[in-house]
Recover the amino acids of this structure.
């Protein structure tokens, strides 16, 4: 049950990437079915790579991996201009790049003291809250039905149930509050006639992911550099999630742990290119699940990974999760993402804000991160590569925090405890 809860928390965010890219590249129904199912399957494989520690890979934290949302625009651009085979070549190149620089990137751990990680986690949580609100309204901002009474009621009921169970229930029931809220909200939506079973009836029963389903990957220098830039943004975001999970579980992270975590994401991206899916990175949604449920072990996430693999092999069963209304998921997201943001504030509570340097670091990084995420159009006249980097609030906020910390707290860096 806890594994299903983790799966539901990330499922909509994960299948959003293949749906968006597939529609942008005008995939037909069969292509879209493969893309979504293979993506779900690879999410399970990528998650296992992180859960299981080896001498080479695996962060060993209760982490779930999914598609990197920040890759949607650049991948669609590469696929539209050069063809989808170049898109997958760029993904493979980016995966190799991440694997090779993992050790160097991990040695930069000293750049992430509590004032930086706390700010970064706060940004991750609060910049995702609007995503929850968009889903609560129905998902499509341009639709006439966006924000109608049905969506508002369904999302609100989902939130109330999750909050009520979390506040008053105990033990196992409290641990699966999010799952109960999502199921209850879905039943309510069904009673209101919102749910359609067409995706289930149209899906096939079984399929196996295939190497080079859409063609053998091809390589282009500009597309590879673009995806390498995107991979740096995902590594920065993953770093924040790693430290968030470290704070929740009490498991201290060393340079070798971070290196193995980045390597696992690099291998997952390489496999994504070979199976013609996507690059994969750590999902911050599941930090909220972990925080709210209070279950901090990897066991539920192993179950979630197993379920993802099974759903990836059985498109018809996997399609059941696609019928959960956006309003239900939105209600759950608002609670979960708010929890992530508050967790960042808890870390910041440990910071000495009597020092003006720490106050400036937190205020500027959070302010810029949320501002950029709200109005990414501010960089629309810059080059594509710069837009990729600067339109991501998490990246802007984290870079701001790191740079300001280096400048303002340079004397204390050697004595900082991590």
């Amino acid at each position: 049950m806890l594994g299903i809860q983790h799966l539901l928390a990330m499922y909509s965010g994960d299948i959003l990437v293949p749906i968006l890219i597939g529609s942008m590249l005008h995939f037909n129904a069969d292509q879209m079915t493969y893309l979504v199912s293979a993506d779900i399957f690879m999410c399970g494989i990528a998650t296992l790579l992180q859960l299981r520690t080896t001498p080479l890979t695996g962060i060993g934290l209760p982490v779930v991996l999914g598609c990197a949302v920040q890759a949607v625009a650049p991948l669609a651009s590469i696929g539209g201009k050069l063809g989808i085979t170049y898109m997958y070549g760029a993904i493979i190149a980016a995966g190799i790049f991440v694997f090779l620089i993992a050790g160097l990137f991990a040695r930069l751990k000293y750049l992430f003291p509590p004032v930086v990680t706390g700010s970064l986690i706060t940004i991750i949580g609060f910049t995702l809250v609007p995503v929850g609100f968009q889903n609560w309204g129905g998902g499509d901002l341009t639709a006439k039905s966006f924000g109608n009474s049905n969506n508002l009621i369904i999302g609100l009921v989902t939130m109330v149930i999750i909050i009520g169970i979390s506040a008053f229930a105990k033990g196992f029931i409290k641990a699966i509050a999010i799952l109960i809220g999502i199921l209850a909200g879905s039943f309510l939506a069904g009673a209101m006639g919102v749910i359609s079973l067409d995706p289930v009836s149209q899906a096939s029963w079984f399929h196996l992911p295939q190497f080079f389903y859409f063609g053998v990957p091809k390589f282009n220098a500009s597309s590879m550099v673009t995806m390498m830039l995107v991979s740096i943004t995902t590594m920065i975001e993953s770093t924040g999630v790693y430290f968030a999970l470290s704070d929740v579980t009490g498991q201290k992270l060393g340079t070798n742990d971070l290196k193995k975590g980045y390597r696992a994401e690099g291998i997952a991206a390489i496999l994504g290119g070979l199976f013609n899916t996507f690059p994969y990175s750590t999902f911050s949604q599941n930090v909220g699940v972990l925080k709210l449920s209070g279950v901090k072990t990897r066991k539920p996430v192993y179950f979630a990974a197993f379920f993802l693999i099974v759903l990836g092999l059985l498109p018809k069963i996997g399609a059941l999760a696609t019928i959960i209304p956006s309003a239900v998921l939105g209600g759950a997201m608002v609670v979960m993402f708010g929890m992530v943001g508050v967790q960042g504030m808890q870390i910041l509570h440990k910071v000495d804000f009597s020092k003006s340097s720490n106050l400036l670091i937190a205020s500027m990084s959070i302010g810029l991160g949320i501002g950029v995420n709200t109005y990414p159009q501010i960089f629309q006249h810059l080059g594509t590569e710069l837009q990729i980097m600067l339109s991501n609030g998490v990246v802007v906020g984290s870079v701001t925090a790191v740079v300001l910390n280096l400048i303002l707290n340079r004397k204390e860096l050697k004595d900082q405890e991590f």
Summary: The mean pLDDT is 83. The chain has 18 helices and two strands. Residues 246 and 252 are 6 Å apart (CA to CA).
